[in-house]
Amino acid sequence: MVKSLKSVMAALGAALFLVGAGAGGAQAQACPSWNNPTVFGSHSLNAGFMPDPYVRNLTAGGTVDLARCLNGGSGYVVTRPDFRLFYNGSSPTGRLVFALEARSNVDTVLLVNAPDGTWHFNDDYRGYNSAVVFNNPMSGQYDVWTGSYSRSSNNPAQLIVTELQY
Description:
By secondary structure, this protein is of the alpha+beta class. It has helices spanning 2-21, 25-29; strands spanning 42-46, 54-62, 64-65, 76-77, 83-88, 95-102, 108-113, 119-123, 130-135, 140-148, 152-162. The protein contains two helices and eleven strands, in the order ααβββββββββββ.
């Protein structure tokens, strides 16, 4: 059910993007797509997971300009999700947070595709680090892109997933 809903939402989103932007297929293919293998793998977490936070080392940045793909988005990512989280259950705190902390001097951006197919973007949640907070998070697949505000790549960073305050 979640997969089919995501497929429908992705197709609708791509169609609306193409119509709204007047773009050709080549440009749309250069935008982020949740329907690709991840760069840094995946993990499953059940609500109330321990230890909290879950931390994944990865790199931030890319060459795909979000301004061309996402209304209101700015920064650069890669086309494939950097990480995929499968979340199951009901958060005991009523929240699920994805945070991106740079381990270098880079301004991060964070893009998350939620289980219902909606896109969530953040830049500068805490200083130059990014975070996306889901209140009453749904179970399912979360695809995460760890980007940078300026076009760059291979910037050491940590993805932090927590149900606690961030």
